[in-house]
Recover the amino acids of this structure.
């Protein structure tokens, strides 16, 4: 960890930005919370689903599960933007070739650029696609489950499809029209995706309260930056700490937004409306919402997570700029690999 991360104060020392709409400067670094390394998971939508999937394979010995909404399989793009936009989004056939992609993952795991595939044993994966999603084809998302099965015979995968859901994060109350793909890409679909993820992946039991009780704060993402690399992250990310997690050991869940869904584009609307905090309170889970930034060099005008190679050829391995940043984040919370 960098010197700035080694001397972090507790939650009480953090800049409190309730609603966060008024926060224009990066907050302080991440607090020194007590995280259970056995209760760490990730989720994301669209490019965030690709990223969550990549992070899960990169750090499978540290991450116990993933929730993936409207994404596709690992290594699909192969570092090629044209391929990413075609075969990995709009394919109308049976989807990317699972055997070839599983071979890539196996080779990289054997070489040490991904965690050993044994780390997937017993992990829980929840995969979602809406049948009105015309941004990422159903055939693309459908290949993720067989890819996991090819890599581990004991990973637990649940696939869910729902009628009338476009390329949006589905909720049971918040957001715009469920069948319309439009900013902030959160849809009022009568379906609580955050709750489904927490139930299937995190193991939450029971029903959450109507409103969250924890604290949402900003933190300086640069304090977790990997030396000498540009992860193309925004200066500011967000952290949600349930009230009980200020003083006791809790789990950790990292949420990756989709393209055009970062705070740079829509403020904290995705964070506020996607519904995670109530479930985090119920399950005693700290939430981290990393944020990307848009750029023309490298070409990423919609602030997507890197699933095609704009940060470098190693983008989908443990040494890739964004994935290495996540590794530093996990290190900070004491979630370290073997």
């Amino acid at each position: 960890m960098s010197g700035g991360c080694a001397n972090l104060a507790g939650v009480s020392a953090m800049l409190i930005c309730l609603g966060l709409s008024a926060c224009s400067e990066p907050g302080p670094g991440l607090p020194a919370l007590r995280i259970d390394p056995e209760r760490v998971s990730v989720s994301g939508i669209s490019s965030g689903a690709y990223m969550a999937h990549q992070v899960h394979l990169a750090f499978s010995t540290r991450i116990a599960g993933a929730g993936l909404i409207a994404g596709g399989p690992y290594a699909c793009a192969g570092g090629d933007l044209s391929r990413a936009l075609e075969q990995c989004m709009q394919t109308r056939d049976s989807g990317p070739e699972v055997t070839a992609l599983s071979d890539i993952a196996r080779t990289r795991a054997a070489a040490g650029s991904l965690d050993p595939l044994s780390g997937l044993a017993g992990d829980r994966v929840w995969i979602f696609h809406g049948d009105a999603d015309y941004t990422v084809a159903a055939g693309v998302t459908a290949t993720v489950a067989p890819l996991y099965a090819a890599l581990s015979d004991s990973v637990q995968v649940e696939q869910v499809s729902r009628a009338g859901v476009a390329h949006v994060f589905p909720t049971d109350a918040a957001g715009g029209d469920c069948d319309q793909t439009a900013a902030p890409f959160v849809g009022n679909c009568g379906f609580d995706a955050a709750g489904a993820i927490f139930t299937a992946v995190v193991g939450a039991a029971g029903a959450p309260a109507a409103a969250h009780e924890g604290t949402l704060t900003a933190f300086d993402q640069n304090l977790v930056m990997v030396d000498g690399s540009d992860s193309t992250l925004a200066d500011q990310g967000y952290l949600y700490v349930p009230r009980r997690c200020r003083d006791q050991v809790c789990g950790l869940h990292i949420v990756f937004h989709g393209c055009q869904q970062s705070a740079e584009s829509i403020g904290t609307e995705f964070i506020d409306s996607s519904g995670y905090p109530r479930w985090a309170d119920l399950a005693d889970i700290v939430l981290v919402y990393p944020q990307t930034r848009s750029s023309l060099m490298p070409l990423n005008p919609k602030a997507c997570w890197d699933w095609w190679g704009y940060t470098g050829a190693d983008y989908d391995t443990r040494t890739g700029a964004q994935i290495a940043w996540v590794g530093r984040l996990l290190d900070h919370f004491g979630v370290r690999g073997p």
About this structure: The first strand starts at residue 35 and ends at 45. The chain has one domain: 3-332.
